[in-house]
Write a structure and sequence with these properties.
Order of helices and strands: HHHHHHEEH
Helix content: over 70%
Number of strands: 2
Shape: elongated
Strand content: under 5%
Strand order of the largest sheet: 1-2
Radius of gyration: 21 Å
CATH class: Mainly Alpha
Length: 184
C-alpha cells in the first residue's frame, strides 16, 4: 500500500475514533519516554536526581492507563469511563509538565531547588547530625543539568513531552465527549 494511502487511513481513523488514536499516542510516546530515561540512566550512565525520579511517576500511571483506554476503545468501554481516563492522564501530564519546568528552572538557577539535592549543608552540628545530613543528601545534584540537546536539559524535554501528552489526552477526552453529545 502506498504511504499516502496509509496516512489517509490514519487521518480518517483519527476523525472517526479519536479516543483510539489518542490512547495509542500516549501509550507509545509515554513508553518511548520511559525507555528513554532508562537508556540515559543505564546505558549513558547518567544517574537521575530526586526531581528526575519524581518526574517519572506520572508516566508509570499514565502509560498503563493509556493501554487500558486503548483496549477500552477496541472493546466498547463506556464513554464516561474513557473520558475520565483521558482526564486523569491529562491531569498527571500537566502536573508533570509543571514539575519539568520547575526542575529546568532550578537547573538554570532561576529559583532554588530542594535543599536535599541542590542546597548547601549550612549547619554541621554534632557528629550524629552530620552523619544524618550526609545520609539524606543526594549525590546527584538537581541544579546541574547532566545533558542538554538544543539548549534544553532532560527536565526541559520532559516538560515539553508531558505537555504534548497532556494535550493529546485532553484532545482524546474532549473529542469523545463531543462525539457522545452528538450521538444523543
Amino acid at each position: 500500500m502506498h504511504p499516502a494511502c496509509l496516512m489517509n487511513d490514519y487521518l480518517t481513523m483519527a476523525r472517526k475514533e479519536p479516543q483510539f488514536i489518542a490512547a495509542a499516542i500516549v501509550a507509545v510516546a509515554g513508553g518511548l519516554t520511559i525507555g528513554g530515561f532508562f537508556f540515559f540512566q543505564y546505558v549513558l550512565d547518567l544517574p537521575p536526581c530526586p526531581l528526575c525520579l519524581e518526574q517519572r511517576t506520572p508516566y508509570y500511571f499514565s502509560v498503563p492507563l493509556a493501554v487500558v483506554l486503548l483496549l477500552g476503545a477496541n472493546y466498547g468501554a463506556s464513554n464516561k469511563a474513557m473520558i475520565a481516563g483521558f482526564l486523569v492522564i491529562a491531569g498527571f501530564m500537566l502536573w508533570n509538565s509543571g514539575l519539568g519546568v520547575y526542575h529546568a528552572g532550578v537547573e538554570w538557577k532561576f529559583w532554588q531547588g530542594p535543599t536535599d539535592c541542590s542546597g548547601p549543608i549550612e549547619k554541621f552540628g554534632d557528629a550524629r547530625d552530620l552523619f544524618k545530613q550526609i545520609q539524606n543528601i543526594s549525590l546527584v545534584r538537581c541544579d546541574q543539568a547532566s545533558w542538554r540537546f538544543l539548549g534544553l536539559s532532560l527536565a526541559g524535554w520532559n516538560a515539553l513531552v508531558s505537555l504534548g501528552l497532556a494535550t493529546v489526552a485532553a484532545w482524546g477526552g474532549l473529542a469523545l465527549a463531543a462525539k457522545t453529545i452528538r450521538l444523543k
